[in-house]
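PROTOCOL LOG
Step 1. Enter all chains and additional molecules of the complex.
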Amino acid sequence: MTAPLPRWADLVLIPALNLLLAFLVAGLVVVFIGEDPVEAVRLLLVGSLGSSYGIGFTLYYATTFVFTGLSVAIAYHAGLFNIGSEGQAALGGIGVTLVCLAVPWPYWWLALPFAILGAGAFGAAWAFLPGYLQAKRGSHVVITTIMFNFIASALVVYLLVNVLKAPGMAPETRNFPEGTFLPFMHEILAVFGIRMSRTPMNFTALLALAAAFLTWVLIWRTRLGYEMRAFGHSEPAAVYAGIDPVRITIVAMLISGAMAGMMALNVVMGFQHRLVLDYVGGAGFVGIAVSLMGRSHPFGVVLAAILFGILYQGGAELAFDMPSISRDMIVVIQALVILFTGALENLVRAPVERAFLRRRRKAA
Amino acid sequence: MDFATVLQLAGSSLRLATPLLLACLAGLYSERAGIFDIGLEGKMLAAAFAAAAFAAITGSVWIGLLAGIAASSALSLIHGVASITLKGNQLISGVAINFLAAGLTALVGQNWFGLGGQTPQLGPGQRFLAIEWPLADALLPVPVIGPIYRHLISGHNILVYLALLAVPATWWILYRTRFGLRLRAVGENPAAVDTAGISVVRLRYAAVMIAGLLCGIAGAYLSTGMAAGFVREMTAGKGFIALAALIFAKWRPWPALGACLLFGALEAIGIRYQAITIPGLGVVPVQFMQALPYILTVVILAGFVGKAVPPRAGGRPYVKER
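Step 2. Run joint prediction.
Step 3. Record the structure below.
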């Protein structure tokens, strides 16, 4: 007997309780370290949302996590757990770099469509083989994407050290031409007379919102999205309905990989203006937590990405004020969020379902 | 390449293969019982930290080893509760465990020792030291056998031999005991095991906890055997290479030994030679050597060279019929 919960309980109550548990345990970790969790939260919020400087950084991080979160979410709808966003994003960085360095671009708006194509194509290409092998040969996509993350990291190191390296010591490319620099948010807002501190937040933030909206359209308003969801829900039923499992698996992985690659627009093209070693820095893995927390819904992904943006920016400020809480605390929180909203979901769901069932029986 | 170099490489391969082998066997127990475990990396990392930290604090390498096993087992217990009792997603649980270990070891390490996440350097009494076998130096002049005995068979620490012994032990447990038969059955067809009146839950917990024990030893080996202390992220993907070896070995103990030795040898060659020149092909970059275990695993997974079929019930929680 399954007890279908009311929609609000499924969409709001359970995720909220899971999140509460995750942060409760995180609070206990802070207590264990010997710091005051309430003060820590205060510092975290002030550091991330207390100034336009903090907000800019928070939203800059959030922009990255929207892309990686959508990447994981899209594959999840098709029943695929893509933990290869990290590697796909790394390859997306190569794509953006090649586009930006190939031509002396005169205007950023001219370079941007090609950079989007480059990021998307390289990210998608890196997701193609895991998708193909899952669809055609039955190789589990989780294992192949893990392997591809390591292969990607070796490949990018090789390219940066041997092929794309600029003269000098550090393994990084030369600077992009200025014509490729995306406008920063403080520059955009200045046009409208709004003052904002200089932060890395850039035009890509708007692209991230567009990507979230397009993902929503794709998943819930197109035939392809319907097929993906049907396939993710029940493979035999989808096949019986005439949906081609090979095509859906590969296409879902391609879109997922392309989305992961797009994060390069924000970091590489929008801020660093060159490709440095390990520019992804775990953002692909944050996407797993973001997608789980956002229940694979684009709106939820955006909210979860902002929350993780707050954690990243606030965590950096917190580590500055409370040196005993280093930035590793973010990884702990990320792990707890994945654990409680993903793996331990039934810890909350089962009692809540029982409570609702009891209430309904009483009413009847 | 002369004989001495080959022996040195072989010895170093064996030492590098040891943590892979222990973690690989850990995964073997768990996955043969139907519980996927991509958290090997995290468990090893947690164990490496706990072992080095407690060895440094208490001065005893054995207390360190126990602490390592305890840390790894605690994470195994989380994995068990999530994937057996609460019937959650085993892959997500594994991912969470990896991050939990990465974050907590660095955070607590900095908090306890203030060395940027490292533990203090361990002295001789706080480490597993190499054991010289009897007559190793006396037999050295004997051609071929002498150097092999001295450099390859003798001169490793006790955990290396323990890992090697774990292979026949695992084979025996898996294929010659009732527990092993049931363990394999619960990974293929848990409903049948349940029908026979044997507890699926208990068997799977047993498998997951054995995995915790072995990952604990693997982690302790890293920080108190191979190195003299813990550094951040010191597992550096070894848990995933172990996972790759497990797939490579198609979830069987003896091939697991072969796969781990192969991957250990690749690492040893990669460490010794930064770039290898193959006549007619040019230079093989070191990054290719590092990626090779993963590439080989994908090839094996793709089924072009023999098909790797995981245990049939792997990854799915068992729900009793009502």
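Step 4. Note key features.
The mean pLDDT of chain B is 88.
The beta strands of chain B are 276-278, 282-284.
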